[in-house]
Amino acid sequence: MESRFWMVALPAVDGRQYVYRVYAPDDALPADLFWDAWHCHDESPFPRASDLFDAAVIRRVG
């Protein structure tokens, strides 16, 4: 079975872009992918990520 995932890039207040791997089916909604990545970032020690959906870059990988 092949693993499929999405890469979700979130800009942060420090000017960097943080990228997260989100495992989800091909028909996952972009908003669900965004929130999965954002909540993962929110629990990390890195500077706050933007919570603007339009600022995220979401791409399917695999």
Structure in words:
This protein is of the alpha+beta class and 62 residues long. It is built from one helix and three strands; from the N terminus they run ββαβ. β1 and β2 form a beta hairpin. The radius of gyration is 11 Å and the shape is elongated. The N and C termini lie close together (12 Å). The mean pLDDT is 85.
Outline of this structure?
The chain has one helix spanning 30-42; strands at residues 5-11, 17-23, 57-61.
The strand count comes to 3
Mean of all residue-level pLDDT scores? 85
Residue share in β-strands? 25-35%
Order of SSEs, N→C? EEHE
Shape estimate: elongated
N-C termini distance: 12 Å
Strand order of the largest sheet: 2-1-3
- Rg from alpha-carbon coordinates: 11 Å
Largest sheet: 3 strands, antiparallel
Structural class: alpha+beta
Helix content: 10-25%
The residue ranges in which pLDDT falls below 50 over 5 or more consecutive positions are: none
What count of helical segments does DSSP give?
Answer: 1
Characteristic terms for this protein:
single chain, 62 residues, three-stranded antiparallel sheet, 1 helix, alpha+beta, 21% helix
Task: Reconstruct the topology from this structure.
Layout: E1 5-11, E2 17-23, H1 30-42, E3 57-61
Antiparallel strand pairs: 1-2, 1-3
